[in-house]
Design goal:
With about 475 residues, the chain is of the alpha/beta class. It has 17 helices and 17 strands. α10 packs across α13.
Length: about 475
């Protein structure tokens, strides 16, 4: 059995996720259920989700059953009563931990990635680890587990609670926020530990105790070797993938040839675009993902200004509620959609909206500032649907896209985290590649459809994870 501990989980119900990590963990869950892999994923249940959509979380509650109730104890804060809510699909089980009492503890799982203090953040993720340790000990049994996967570094409290010889830590981002830290005083107060360094880097704890570290693209090996060179003997790359049955439109499951592909893509586009409130035969270009500076959302806004009405644009995503840049860009997205007839805004982006955006598109854009993206999976979801990407050379893109054959590449291939304020000279090449794409997106999209399916499939990823 594999047990995954994660801060977020994006299923087809609810809004218990913020972005790529949660969606990826959801894909692993569905793939495990389909492939018959004994798999459990444990996360917190966030009553207000990520963007305060309590109705979406009520939908999730309607699909889970209360499996167990227990108490966990903090040295400083005392006892906390929790319930374990289970969602089961074939051989896969998702466990959502919900705090019942006391009131102070209920704030910990109120909203994803939103905390009022460092102490609250510390106890939120310690709660996840303590609840996971108790569930594994009392319900699953440590002797039945092949691997415990710590997604990102927040669950790295778990090895401080319980020794296990087969922890793995999966590092999902090269950026600083992928290596969270806490003041050493919290560890002294809660555990009695006196770490020789302050702050305490959670990724360092995870890598120190793990039998293996996993990064999510080959390019990330270079990043991690600069930050954690003393752990490189145990780190390998398993490039991310997507659950094809979840993301590919059913009409594309059996494509005979290019003509059949074009006919089906046109039908899918028309149907999906209509569900987004638009009817048009113009080419559709999309930018839909988490709205943050390193993903360069300003590229798509400049493109809208310059291409004007010749193209339909789908834009959207989520910004962290405390990130000024993202919030301002989200406002601009809404403003563009409200004042231009050729722009569709997809708010928030739940799983269904993301599917519609992909299925409606002729060209997908993938624009991270090279060096900052760990893998990226939106271009994979587009590719398996025959929607080619114009992509920067970042994340897993160089492993999959061949320029001018199954997509288009632009910009430098950097393996260092340059400041986001660095002069960015890549827009003109991006626009040039967009214009190329507008001339033959069906032919290149067909090549993407043919070439993405094997490598980008969860079947490949789960084989590598289970071995």
């Amino acid at each position: 059995m594999i047990v995954s501990i994660t801060a977020e989980l994006g299923l087809d119900i609810g809004e218990n996720f913020a972005g790529g990590l949660g969606v990826l963990e959801g894909d692993k869950f569905y793939a495990s259920a389909r492939l018959g892999i004994d798999y459990a994923v444990i996360t917190l249940f966030y009553r207000k989700g990520y963007t305060r959509k309590e109705d979406k979380q009520k939908e999730l509650l309607s699909h889970v059953i209360k499996e167990w109730e227990s108490e966990i104890e903090f040295n400083k804060k005392g006892k906390v009563k929790v319930e374990y809510l289970a969602y089961k699909l074939n051989t896969a089980k998702a466990i959502f931990v919900n705090v019942i009492s006391p009131e102070w503890a209920k704030k910990l799982n109120e909203q994803l990635y939103i905390e009022n203090s460092e102490e609250e953040r510390f106890y939120k993720y310690l709660l996840l680890s303590k609840a996971s340790e108790k569930y594994i000990s009392q319900i699953i049994g440590w002797d039945k587990i092949k691997y415990v996967d710590l997604q990102e570094a927040y669950p790295s409290f778990l090895p401080l609670l319980r020794y296990f010889p087969r922890y793995r830590i999966i590092i999902h981002t090269p950026a600083p926020w992928g290596h969270p830290t806490f003041s050493a005083k919290f560890f002294k107060e809660e555990f009695g530990f006196e770490f020789p360094y302050d702050p305490v880097v959670m990724t360092e704890i995870g890598l120190s105790v793990a039998t293996q570290g996993i990064v999510v693209s080959k390019k990330m090996i270079k990043h991690v070797s600069k930050v954690f060179p003393h752990h490189m003997h145990k780190i390998k790359a398993i490039t991310n993938a997507v659950e094809i049955p979840r993301w590919r439109h059913p009409l594309l499951n059996n494509v005979k040839d290019l003509d059949d592909f074009i006919r089906k893509r046109k039908e899918i586009k028309k149907e999906s675009l209509k569900k987004l409130g638009k009817e048009s035969e113009k080419p559709v270009i999309s930018w839909v993902r988490r709205i943050t500076q390193y993903k360069r959302p300003e590229f798509i806004l400049r493109l809208i200004d310059e291409l004007k009405d010749d193209v339909i644009f789908i834009i959207g995503g989520k910004a962290h509620p405390f990130e000024y840049y993202g919030i301002e860009l989200e406002k601009k997205f809404k403003d563009y959609a409200g004042t231009r007839n050729n722009v569709i805004y997809v708010p928030g982006v739940d799983i269904n909206s993301m599917k519609l955006a992909i299925w409606s598109s002729d060209i997908w854009t993938f624009t991270p500032f090279s060096g900052w993206e760990a893998s990226g999976t939106s271009f994979m979801k587009a590719g398996i649907n025959g929607v080619p990407s114009v992509a920067s050379r970042d994340g897993a893109v160089p492993e999959i896209i061949r320029d001018g054959y199954n997509g288009w590449l632009y910009g430098e291939d950097r393996d260092e985290l340059l400041p986001l304020t660095s002069y960015d000279h890549e827009y003109e090449e991006f626009k040039k590649k967009i214009k190329e794409a507008l001339n033959n997106y069906y032919e290149i999209g067909y090549n993407a459809y043919l070439t993405f399916s094997e490598f980008c499939s969860m079947d490949r990823l789960m084989r590598e994870y289970v071995l």
